[in-house]
Design a protein that fits this description.
Elements: H1 2-5, H2 10-17, E1 29-30, H3 33-42, E2 50-54, H4 60-67, E3 72-77, H5 83-92, E4 97-101, E5 117-122, H6 128-136, E6 147-153, H7 154-161, H8 171-179, E7 180-188, E8 193-194, E9 201-208, H9 218-230, H10 236-239, H11 247-253, H12 267-278
Helix pairs in contact: 3-4, 9-12
Length: about 280
């Protein structure tokens, strides 16, 4: 890819700008430009889209997104050391790369992006799950984005796509699958990164649904799943007893056995229960 965009390999970029990855920033750099281009392609056709990238670091994925034809990329990078390297990429792609030296948790991205928008990022490990939950729980649905193509620790990725009666099934799976169609589209070993993390990583592609998969009361769904999975080894009649003295009858009314546990209940029945409990 260096021949395509005229920029040096990422190892040279890191050496030139002294970009030693910082653990406190959740940094693990993906240096293989073939892999970053593949991740960009997994996000779909970008030619008519603005792309939001969080934590670009030295810009490997950024270069992949631009090479694959993204209309414009907004890269939000907290580490000021990386800005000079990103500026070099911006100079090769005039008008197509905007860089914000900021904390992604503090930025209102809506004012910087033009629809349609796709989010593509090798998320810093320390804020990845929090960002995902924010993107899945906006005040208004559908959100500003069409799809999310995100790198996580593999265990987090498995929690996003997990099905009932599996060890990773929980609130994150319910939240993601209620409003999106999530799929693991790529896995990466630790040695693909510099420095190598202690865990495998995976890319999850989440395509938004225009409407949630099942009718539900959002606030009640969040409350009931928090209580149910907060005591996941207990029967639901016990873990949800705080929802009222008639909880067993309400469970039965939506086809849930009061003696069942949270991990046995699918999304459809949790959604139905939220409506009954809203009353």
């Amino acid at each position: 890819m260096a021949m395509i965009d005229g920029l040096p390999p990422l190892r040279e970029v890191i050496r030139a700008h002294d970009l030693v990855a910082k653990r406190q920033l959740g940094q693990n750099f993906l240096l293989d430009l073939n892999l970053t281009a593949k991740i960009a392609r997994l996000a779909g056709d970008l030619t008519a889209c603005d792309v939001l990238e969080i934590g670009p670091g030295p810009g490997g994925l950024t270069r992949g997104l631009l090479v694959e034809g993204a209309r414009r990329v907004l890269a939000i990078e907290k580490d000021p050391r990386c800005i000079a390297a990103l500026d070099e990429i911006a100079a090769i792609y005039p008008g197509r790369l905007s860089i914000l030296n900021a904390d992604a948790l503090q930025v209102d991205v809506g004012q910087h992006l033009t629809s349609p928008v796709r989010v593509v990022a090798n998320l810093p490990y320390n804020i990845g799950t929090e960002l995902l939950i924010r993107w899945l729980t906006p005040q208004v649905w559908p959100p500003f984005w069409q799809s999310l193509t995100l790198m996580f620790q593999k265990e987090v990725a498995e929690r996003i796509v997990a099905k009932p009666r599996t060890e990773h099934y929980g609130r994150l799976a319910l939240l993601a699958q209620w409003r999106t169609d999530p799929k693991i589209v790529m896995t990466l070993p630790p040695e693909a990164f510099t420095p190598a993390p202690k865990v495998h990583s995976a890319v999850v592609h989440l395509t938004r649904l225009d409407q949630p998969r099942y009718p539900a009361d959002e606030a009640m769904l969040a409350r009931v799943t928090t209580m149910a999975f907060g005591q996941r080894r207990k029967m639901l009649r016990s873990s949800l007893k705080g929802m009222g003295p008639d909880i067993e009858a309400k469970l039965v009314s939506v086809g849930i056995e009061p003696t069942a546990r949270a991990e046995e209940i699918d999304l459809a029945r949790f959604c139905a229960l939220s409506l009954v409990l809203r009353g």
